[in-house]
Amino acid sequence: MNPDEALSANFTLGEMIRSQSAVRKGIRNVPGPVELAALRLLCQKVLQPIRDHYDRPVVVTSGYRSPRLNTAIGGSRSSQHCRGEAADFTVPGVSNIEVCRWIKRNLNYDQLIYEFGESGWIHVSYSAHRMRNMELSAQRIGGRTRYLPGLRT
User: Fold this and answer.
1) Is the pTM value of this prediction over 0.85?
2) In the chain, what is the greatest distance between 2 CA atoms, to the nearest angstrom?
3) Is 3 within a domain?
4) Tally of domains within the chain
5) Which of 13, 16, 23, 135 is the most buried (most CB within 10 A)?
6) 135 and 102 in contact (C-beta within 8 Å)?
7) DSSP H helix total and E strand total for the chain
8) 40 is in which domain, residue-wise?
9) β-strands 121-125, 86-90 pairing
10) pLDDT tens for residues 83-94?
């Protein structure tokens, strides 16, 4: 595995597998060939167009998660992160809702989640097998995370 491997013009394998949690917990976070192919599609079809449109870095805070890492951080059992199909990110200097609205208007994706407003992040997934173009908003309600339909500010 080469962390410098380019997945698109501005994204490398290293940034898509980087995980402070994996380092802290001593968990190997390396995708297999199927997950690597999915990461490449995610970068080329979603993250790179965002980078090109805003002409700013896209800061990925969570990309691929090995099943062991996903379990260790309490991720969903069906997380698309484990298949290399999802990333959590922000675009510094641009509001999360603006980026979400641009994605909704201009790209195909499986899920687009506006996570916890402007202090949170954007979750987006891309799957070669399904393209639901589903939008959700994650909010804390009564101490629990709730996923509501649509992009809600």
Assistant:
1) yes
2) 44
3) no
4) 1
5) 16
6) no
7) 6, 6
8) 13-149
9) antiparallel
10) 999 999 999 999
